[in-house]
Design goal:
The complex is a heterodimer of chains A (211) and B (411).
Chain A (H helix, E strand, L loop, with lengths): L3 E4 L6 E6 L2 E7 L8 H14 L5 E7 H4 L4 H7 L2 E5 L4 E5 L4 H54 L1 H6 L35 H6 L12
Parallel strand pairs in A: 3-4, 4-5
Antiparallel strand pairs in A: 1-2, 2-3, 5-6
Chain B lengths: L1 E2 L3 E4 L9 E4 L2 E2 L6 H5 L7 E2 L3 H4 L6 H4 E2 L12 H17 L11 E7 L5 H13 L6 E8 H9 L3 E7 L4 E7 L1 E2 L5 E3 L3 H14 L9 H11 L2 E2 L2 H10 L7 E3 L6 E3 L7 H9 L5 H7 L8 E3 L2 E4 L4 H9 L7 H6 L1 E4 L15 E2 L1 H11 L7 E3 L6 H12 L15 E2 L3
Parallel strand pairs in B: 7-8, 9-18, 12-17, 18-20
Antiparallel strand pairs in B: 1-2, 2-3, 4-5, 4-6, 8-21, 9-10, 10-11, 10-12, 13-19, 14-15, 16-17
Classes of the chains: A alpha/beta (211), B alpha+beta (411).
Chain lengths: 211, 411
């Protein structure tokens, strides 16, 4: 076969062959093992543990034992099955990388999830940094705006018609129609002589005719 | 805030040309009723846009629905009416709520009342605003007479304002101030035109409809005419009955009112408002229509039978002589009772309100007069309030003698 046979010193019941880069592990069951159910399970578990060491694990069992073994379990574990009797040895189930593939597939969702979470965390960190930057900018703008309002109150009040109700806006003796600008006032303010008359109330007026 | 007889108009200068309007009325829900006890408690008085939601056909609306300014006056002890005024004022204030901040320190409120409002109405209204300032949104308040506000809104500083509403009319000369001592009040308004319309309907065989107030008002507005000269108009209407045929179809019904050969009576409707002294009205008085009487309300005597011409002359002649020509030169008519339609085909016989006033004054020998309708009859009082509030300096404190100035309420 061109294979190299190695005796596994740590596990005397296991044969090990190397063909090129591939390594084949064969665990042999004897007819007496049929009686001991735990022995079969133990063998399967043991091969599974050796799966990391070899790429092609086999279980070799007497042909009589073949009917009692569940081929599906072996396939899902990627363990091959060799049945033998006095005349021949037959490869019933080929070992495969199924189990290895399954493991990778089972591991991938959590891997993907972790990757997504890390990406989201990074994005959040960026957003947070951006918000902090904006907030700092707004604070400085608000500060400068407040300073400008404090230093020039008259100009800022002129822009809001509602603020004409404030006492500081009221003219002392004469009414200034340009406080808000003509365009900002309703039409009934236009050329209304009462604006001048009423603005002098309490100041430079004569005795009213009212009784 | 304009407390009109039927509408309450309110809003700050930021409303622009027109204020917000709600009916000047309040509804007092039956708080003993199971419905109100079962559900969340209703306010003592409902005002504003929600009133129609509370109206129920099986309830006695005459006692629960209160129009506080029906005649421009509220009795001192009419607690229900004052509650409505208070609720409306609060409603007006809450409708334009502004969160207190360094820039906004409260509204300066200008309220407008009828020119014949007695002093206790000023006192009560100012007290109401003091009490409702729990939100801190009122900085100062003042009350001005409606004719004064009309003059301000119209932009005329020397004039006579005639305000005619449903129940009464007021003639108020103004020369930078309202000349209170020269005011003349008439116990006549749109309601009296309704009364004569109902009599005309009875005479024309529509007695069954004469009791429906809203229908009578619509008929008045549809067929009523102001004659330039009543005798001439009646002659003309009888000579050309088809031209002056008075017919009114009530929309959405089978009811059609046709005065037929009595169509000339449509001139009586307008004439009665301006001058009820024509002998033709005596027949109506004799048959039971109440004659407009002189009544004293508050401190004012409302004259019943004084025609508008005599009322204007009486008012103006209480003013200094040198002022009188200027007053005659600017007569402003305000209020729904002066809105009369004139068909082109009837021009010369039927006239509008300003022409009728001129005609009445001409009969008294006063010729160089100018009579105008206010440009915005519905909102001119509110316009005046806005200008007054805008222009009067805040350090002009309230003066009980002048009934003017700002009463400071807020800090």
């Amino acid at each position: 076969m061109g294979a190299l046979n190695y005796e596994n010193s740590s596990d005397p019941g296991t044969l090990s062959f190397e063909v090129g880069n591939e390594r084949t592990l064969v665990r042999i069951l004897t007819p007496t093992d049929i009686i001991e159910r735990n022995q079969i399970i133990d063998t399967l578990l043991h091969l599974s543990s050796l799966r990391r060491e070899g790429t092609q694990p086999y279980i070799a069992a007497p042909r009589l034992l073949g009917a009692t073994l569940d081929s599906q379990i072996l396939r899902s574990s990627g363990i091959g099955l060799l049945l033998y009797d006095d005349r021949r040895i037959e490869e019933t189930i080929k070992p495969g990388p199924i189990q290895h593939t399954i493991r990778i597939n089972q591991a991938s969702p959590s891997f993907n999830t972790n990757t997504t979470l890390i990406a989201e965390l990074a994005a959040l960190r960026l957003t947070c940094a951006e918000l902090e930057k904006n907030m700092s900018h707004m604070r400085s703008e608000f500060k400068s705006f407040r300073e400008s309002v404090m230093s020039s109150t008259t100009i800022s009040r002129d822009s809001n018609p509602v603020r004409t109700f404030e006492p500081l806006q009221r003219p002392e003796t004469t009414f200034q129609t340009n406080v808000l600008g003509e365009h900002a006032l309703p039409s009934f303010f236009t050329n209304n002589p009462w604006l001048d008359v009423l603005s002098k109330r309490g100041h430079t007026e004569g005795t009213p005719l009212a009784g | 805030m304009d407390f009109g007889t039927s509408d309450f108009k309110f809003g700050p200068i930021t409303c622009g040309e027109n204020p917000r309007i709600v009916n000047n009325r309040g509804y007092f829900p039956d708080k003993k009723s199971l419905v109100y006890r079962a559900f969340e408690p209703a306010a003592d008085v409902i005002v504003g846009d929600e009133v129609p939601l509370y109206l129920q056909s099986n309830e006695d609306l005459t006692s629960r629905l209160v129009y506080p300014m029906k005649n421009g006056l509220i009795d001192k002890d009419d607690d229900k009416a004052w509650k409505v005024v208070s609720a409306l004022s609060q409603f007006g204030l809450d409708s334009f709520h502004v969160t207190a901040n360094n820039a906004f320190q409260g509204y300066n409120i200008v309220a407008s009342l009828s020119a014949v409002s007695p002093r206790y109405m000023y006192e009560r209204l100012l007290e109401l605003f003091k009490q409702m300032n729990h939100s801190g949104n009122v900085r100062a308040v003042t009350v001005i007479p409606q004719p004064f506000a009309v003059a301000i809104g119209h932009g005329v500083t020397t004039c006579v304002v005639i305000e005619s509403g449903h129940g009464n009319s007021q003639i108020c000369p103004i020369s930078k101030y309202p000349i209170g001592s020269a005011q003349v009040a008439l116990n006549r308004g749109g309601g009296d035109a309704n009364a004569i319309t109902a009599e005309i309907l009875k005479d024309s065989g529509y007695g069954d409809l004469a009791g429906e107030e809203s229908l009578v008002r619509r008929v008045k507005e549809s067929i009523g005419l102001i004659p330039d000269d009543l005798d001439a108009a009646i002659s003309e209407a009888k000579r050309a009955p088809r031209k002056f045929h008075a017919k009114h179809k009530v929309p959405g019904t089978r009811v059609e009112i046709d005065l037929e050969q009595n169509s000339w009576t449509r001139f009586l409707i307008g004439e009665y408002v301006f001058n009820p002294n024509h002998e033709i009205f005596e027949s109506y008085f004799n048959r039971g229509m109440p004659r407009p009487r002189d009544v004293k309300m508050g401190e004012t005597t409302f004259r019943g039978m004084l025609d508008f011409g005599d009322a204007i002359v009486a008012s103006v002649e209480k003013c200094p002589v040198e002022l009188q020509p200027m007053l005659y030169h600017e007569i402003l008519l305000s209020g729904g009772n002066f809105s009369w339609k004139v068909s082109e085909s009837m021009e010369g016989v039927a006239v509008n309100a300003p022409t009728k006033i001129k005609s009445l004054l001409r009969a008294k020998g006063i010729r160089n007069v100018s009579v105008k309708m206010t440009t915005s009859p519905q909102f001119s009082v509110w316009h005046g309030c806005i200008i007054y509030g805008f222009a009067v300096p805040e350090d002009y404190g309230w003066d009980w003698q002048r009934l003017e100035g700002w009463l400071r309420i807020g800090a």
